[in-house]
TrEMBL record:
InterPro entries associated with the record: Hemerythrin-like (IPR012312)
Record-linked Pfam families: Hemerythrin (PF01814)
Domain of life: Bacteria
This protein's name: Hemerythrin domain-containing protein
Native source organism of the sequence: Dyella acidiphila
Residues in Hemerythrin-like domain copies: 3-133
Length: 136
């Protein structure tokens, strides 16, 4: 299976997280408009990436002849549901400039937790899941 698109999207996602982190470090209140804009852009990209994984990647892994590969794919898909839900809740909490401006430290803390989990997930997919998918 060719997963170059998934890998490229991971690179783009991590770059978007870096851009968001730079905005936050420059001042949450001062850059609240840009932060919300970045979150909206990232959310669209993340939703498209997850949909593609659900339509293409996970079914291919689930149908693999190697039961270990199939099980790993199911496990990753289940875990992703949890992270996707956490990310959606995060965006819902912080989707307006006023929400971020009212509680910049709350936003910063919440963002650190969500994006750390997202970063770890991307790294795990790159290291564990994508190598399996390349051989399916």
């Amino acid at each position: 299976m060719n997963i170059d698109k998934f890998k490229r999207e991971h690179v783009e996602l991590l770059a978007a997280v870096t851009a968001l982190r730079e905005l936050v470090q420059s001042g949450v209140q001062e850059h609240a408009d840009a932060i919300v804009s970045q979150l909206v852009t990232m959310s669209s990209a993340i939703k498209l990436h997850l949909a593609a994984e659900d339509r293409v990647l996970y079914p291919a892994l689930a149908n693999a002849a190697d039961q270990q590969v199939a099980q790993t794919g199911r496990q990753f898909q289940q875990e992703m549901g949890d992270l996707a839900g956490a990310y959606a809740s995060f965006v819902s909490r912080w989707n307006l400039v006023g929400k971020i401006s009212k509680d910049p430290e709350g936003f910063r803390s919440d963002a650190n937790n969500v994006f750390k989990a997202l970063h770890l997930r991307v790294q795990r997919e790159n290291r564990e899941l994508y190598p399996l998918a390349e051989h399916v």
